[in-house]
Each structure stands twice: as structure tokens, then as C-alpha cells.
Amino acid sequence: MVSGVVVVLQFLLFLVIGVMLFSYYQHFPLGRELEQINRIFPIFIVEEMPAGISGLIIAAIFAAAMSTLSSSLNSLSSSSMNDYYRPLIRPEATDAHYLRASRICTLGWGIILILVSFLAKNWGEVLQAGLTITSFTMGSVLGVFLLGLLRKKQSQNVGLFAMVTGLGVMVFVGLQPGIAWTWYVLIGSSATLFSGLFLAKILVLFRKA
């Protein structure tokens, strides 16, 4: 609940910064065209702020980026090791082996994220691209959560089927140019929830038969 409040205040801060930058450059034009409008804030930090403050802000940006990246790499590597490699490939290996494998897995995920970052340059504005990617997957997560609330004794296989179905629907929706990203969470959560409820109903009917 606290996180929800903080996120609202965080995005409010982003919007206020954008309005203030727009107002500033209306009175003091930049004098050159930008290939991407996202560069306006870094340019303001480097060119308009005092040296000490701009250095602190740049250091804070790098620290936040490194923190997010390290936690993402650790989560991806841990999930890959504990959910797939350890139980399915090498269930009885030593801890030293798992440590080496986790390091290799972290390196692999790092390479994948670097490749994705190169592709992301063509995805438009940073904020909209980030919200689009988040909305693409969060619908399935919300749908599984709602499914768990409605059917608390349901097996995890139904939840996995529902999530895969929701993601499949979102892949189809993402290929349609006329659907805005703001609808992604609603579509994904609805597809996940109703497909899970449908499968659960089918399983109940089979058991009775």
C-alpha cells in the first residue's frame, strides 16, 4: 500500500519536472534540434546546472541504474538456477558447481539485457516504452492473483495455464497497431482470469464425470 502511494508521488514528480523543463526551454530555447526528446533532461543537467549539483545528480542516476540492473540480474539468475537448472538438469551437484553455474547464468542474462537495450533504442520515448513493457506482463500477474483469490484451492497448473494464455493473448494484442498500451493490463488480466476460471470449470466437470 505504501508502495502504491510512493509510485503516485514519483510519477507526479516526473510530470512536474517535464512541465518545468518545457517552461524553461520556452523562455530559453535550446537552439538545436534533438533526435530524441528524452535527451532534454540530461542536457539540462549537464549544461544548465552548477557543476557540483550536476555531478551529484549524474552519480545518483548511475547508482540507481546499477542498483536496478544488479537486482534484476540476481533475480533472473536465481530464478533460472532454482526453477530450472537445479531441479531439472543437475539436482545433485555441489554448492561450488551451483555457484559457478549461477555466475555463468548471470553473465548470460547480462548479454541478453545488453541486446535488448540495443533494440529498445527504436521503441520510442523511454517512459512510454517502459510502461508498455510493464503493462504487457503485469496483466497476467494481476490475473493470476485474482484467480488465486477467487479459487484458493486451485492447483498451480491452472495458474500457469492461465498466465501462458494471458501472455499469448498479449502477444496477439501487441501486434495490433490500433490498441493503445493503456488497455494492456485490463486485457491481459481479463484473459488470464477468465481462461483460468474456464479451465478450472472444465476440470471440475471431468472429475464429476
Please tell me about this protein's structure.
With 209 residues, the chain is an all-alpha fold.
**Overall mean confidence score, pLDDT:** 85
Number of domains: 2
Strand content: under 5%
Span of the ends, CA to CA: 44 Å
Helix-strand pattern: HHHHHHH
Helix content: over 70%
Give a topology summary.
Blueprint: H1 2-27, H2 40-48, H3 51-89, H4 95-120, H5 126-150, H6 156-174, H7 184-208
Helix pairs in contact: 3-4, 5-6, 5-7, 6-7
Quick description:
The protein is mainly alpha-helical and 209 residues long.
List keywords for this structure.
209 residues; 81% helix; globular
